[in-house]
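Inputs:
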Amino acid sequence: QVQLVESGGGFVKPGGSLRLSCAASGFAFSDYYMTWIRQAPGKGLEWLSYISTSAKTILYAPSLEGRFTISRDNAKNTVYLQMDNLRADDTAVYYCARWGPLDYWGQGTLVTVSS
Amino acid sequence: QSVLTQPPSVYAASGQKVTISCSGSSFNTGKYYVSWYQQFPGTTPKLLIYDDYQRPSGIPDRFSGSKSGTSATLGITGLQTGDEADYYCGAWDGSLNAYVFGSGTKVTVL
């Protein structure tokens, strides 16, 4: 069965960095675009980025202002989200999902940005 | 302020039908497919409807999707207490070059 497992979340101070990972299994990972979505506490869903199968096409939400970088390693069946210059409003649960449609989601990993 | 507009909440009695609207523009819902997601408190969102009206395997036919112009609708018939959740619509936005979600609608069974 399809599984997506995020990791790498935690507590970080403003201005800090974190790298999230999403390990995929149960499907041909290299055949699918992948995406990251987040949800701030008590708020709605916010799409962040997607990456194509070969990583040649990458898009980001305009609101990220270049602070996040998505990447993937098809040999490891893993997609990553490098998050730099983190701010308090980046505090959220971060989900990875299989793109087009968003048919499978991971359980999410919590990122807390606070001084 | 979400690009896609949904009512904050809808209510209906058990066994009744409820509909949730998702209003967008020619840049998103009017041009691209709409999906719907169900999320119970503290859990991961789940795909309910994709490509405006298609149901993934395992989704009961009590859930339906439709679209007319720039507005999409999720319908839930035979409402059950187990349907109490937040529901989000989503679509690609060609102007923003981003995927956008509605603000979410909380379904309450009276």
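Chain B has no helices and nine strands. Flag for discussion at group meeting.
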